[in-house]
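[Meeting: bench + compute handoff]

Bench side (C.D.) handed over the final construct sequence. Compute side (W.E.) agreed to return the predicted structure before the next meeting so the bench team could plan truncations. Sequence as handed over:
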Amino acid sequence: MSPTQLSLTSGPQISVRTLLQNPLMIPARILELLDGQFIDDILLRFEGNASVVAFEEGAPVFLDGEVADLVEFEEIPVLGTGFGLPRLAVATKKGAGVRVSEDMKRENNIGAINKQIIALTNSMIRARFIAMRQLLLNPAIPSFPAAAAWDTVNGKPRRDIALAQEMVGAAGTGQDDTFGYEADTIVFPGSITPVLLDNSDFLKVYGGNLASENIAYTGKLPQDVMDMAALKARFWPADRVLVTQRKTLGFYTDPRPLEVTPMYPEGGGPNGGPTESHRTDATMKRTVGIDQPKAAVWITGVKTP
């Protein structure tokens, strides 16, 4: 999830005139750059196309009784389920467009098109990250402070992460009644790499056969941290880390999935109409909700202010 980069001039040279003659080229490139970049696609499960979703927050995930041992001809009991807090999620529509002017075409200003595409894709990614970040700051999601900031000599990230995994796994109504969650994903802020590079507690396991995965050697986070998929996210709170079970924490619906229109003239007449421009528009409409908040835990204070 690094900043988007692109060059329409890499490989065989493409002219602005060619792009306008092929109105699907720019939209296809935008969709390509956005593919796999949205964190809500990774953390949440798909639940259909509704624009308004009524759901229960924290509803029990088990029946309100035990599965019975039955003898022959004994009636099978029907068990119920408990209820969570009623909640309502409403879809929000987001969109933005970019232009190609007649002057850009005549001057073959491919750089201006590259700049707009980069800005559009980065803005669309940021919009979804910010929406997801606000959703995850739901106070129903448990949190605890790191024993010490990870950028200090006393920071113990592995101990803090292990405690978060334990809290996710132990979430429930009693000592012997858990929800059966299992933390499988950890989301770090984008600025975490230099913090962990200087943390001996985090680096100490990368010896022997694991030396090639040492962050001090590779300069980047490993794909897995303590048996969890590790994600490094832009536009993430710099002082906290999320440990969760993805696809269990919450849901999304797509009443209007991400789409990008073909290039089209902005007005009637030659050369793109009175503004002498063609444009393409990117739009998306999504509903998101957190219905199992205890399937996640925030570790706060991982970085000094």
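W.E. noted at the follow-up: The mean pLDDT is 87. C.D. will use this when planning the next construct.
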